[in-house]
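#random but structural
TW: two for the price of one
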Amino acid sequence: MGRAIEGKAHALGTRGARVRWAVALIVLVVLGLFLYWVLYARFYAGTDDAYVTGDLVPVDAQVTGTAAEVFVRRTQFVHKGERLALLQADRSHLALRRARAALGSAARHVRALFARARALRWRRQALEWDRARLMHDLARYQRSLSAGAVSAMRVDDTQLRIRALNAEIGETRAQWDGARALVRDTTVANNPLVRVAIARLEVADLAWQRRVIRAPVSGFIGQRTVYPGTEIHAGQRLFTIVPLDDLWVVANIKETHMRDVRPGDRVRLTSAYYGSGVVYRGVVLGLAPGAGSAFSILPPDNATGNYIHIVERVPVRIGLRSSQLAAHPLRPGLSMTVRVRAHQRGRSLLMPLTTRAGSHDQTRIYRQELRRAQALAAHILARSGKHPAGMKAATGDGRASRGQAASAVQAVPARRPRVAPVHGARQIR
């Protein structure tokens, strides 16, 4: 009987020790978790709802045409300015030829306007010299009329000729004013008629140049929707280029964990692509100015119906080191696991570190197009100003005829009338 009681007491003691050890273990685990949260976990905000993203640069057609040749394929790397495709733009070529002819015609027309203004000026001056000579003769006739040396009929005839010259001078002055209004204070290059033709030529030349589809940035061809023979329209998406040297991570962190997250916080990231053996070091660049639901296609309307509270997530932009991207390249869309060390409170939420990337935010491949169009317009203007050899010999390039006319006018023995010059006429050669 005594042995049974002792065995039962021993079993109870063993069970009590086990309970005590279990309670102590539970206490230690709880204490460890508490210390882990106090000393470590509460300073970090993590999520596996994070994805790699980057610039997906679209390449659209700027003119209408038919795809004649495609030079690249998907996954191929292209450099900035490299040719991607070529369009058979016959209409653009015809429009360019028409614009070139229109500019040459406009330049010659304006030169003809300057020449007409000069001709009307000299014609008016010649008529005024004739009038001055007749008035001089009329004064002599009137003095000799009393002596009978000149008949009254000659005096009347001279007066009628002066009146006719006055009318002709008035008509010539009106024609000169009209011709001068078209060329006043201008040259051939900046005349409005020529400027309109130049603008049309530049537009036509740009359309002709842009039949060649070029890469605006360097990167990999992600999408291609054009093939030889495809009918292309302006604005149609042809390629998508993905630069892999400038990627970042967007982590959607719960709003309950966002209290201490600030721009500049250090981030530890791992990807499912490489596994936990490759660790990326990043930094929080900035926080989105609204939760993800605020930018959705159908934002929630909690003022109607039953309300169910859902914890929102805030997109956080995390920058990656370029050296790590070069060693272990990533692709847009890959999933990441993020842990943000969020105990630094020195930086404001309204002071993000996000800045302009630089190389992928601008392209200069289109600058040469306008310069080429302007050079083409200047070349056409220069060619339109050249005179044939026969015309130079006949007119002395416009300068000898003016000198001969001036010497002829000076030979008339009368007072020289004052004539206003044509503005801009001497700038044409």
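TW: number two ↓
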Amino acid sequence: MDGRAYGAGKAIQGIDPLRVIKKPRVILRLVSLLFSIIVFGCISSQAWYTDKEGYTWCQYNHDSNACSFGVAVGVIAFLGLILFLVSDVIFENLSSIKTRKHIVIADMGISGLWTFMWFICFCYLTNAWSRSVVENLPRDGSGRNGVQGAITFCFFSIFTWAGMTFFAVKRFREGVSATFMPGYDQDAWGTSPQQGAAPASSAYPGVGDSQTPYQEQPFGSRPAGGMGGVVTPSANAIEKVQFPTDLQQLSPAQVVRAGDHSTLSMSGGASANAVSPNAPYYA
């Protein structure tokens, strides 16, 4: 079973418009987009009128703030819906769990906030319209349908935005399924590497391993007669070396080697019980 992260499966290649449009939250966004256009369109084009003296008034009880507030809420809702529709189109192509989480949190917060703003806008416009004096409105009734239509679609927008908030909360609570997280963009999620994954092998054998496959042979087990006849004996191979009284009297012919013991025989020589094991001698 494929894992899911915030309401969508693993990232896919390409975009299927029909698949995106069929989603409930996308349908609600499109309906809310239409409602927002109706609200700020009706207020902008029909809520304002000019009296005989040339003054421009808002039909909502001559409260220009009511008209401005309704237009502002509608325009901002329209722009926000455009952004979230774009995010819905590319959401399944996002491989970053962290990016998905941020989009869902933004959707949840803005949808909840604008549900409240539409409720305030509905109450504000309804109250201002109910207090309007008929004598102060256009006698021919022009723009009245637009003013009342804006109030009606403010009311409808409360429910569509509440629905989007519900789906955003549902996606956020769904989070990331257990089958989705392992091996899928762990760095973007901010967690440790894959659990149970084998450590990366080194390009060179033995590097980074607990057991080194190659070990150097003991110093004393090197074969005698190395390069150029130079041999460095181990400490155990030297037991006693006798030196002549005058080292300058030593001749190469007097060097004798027998088995594992090295003895320097010289006439009238003194003896030394220790020689540095690192000092080479010639066989």
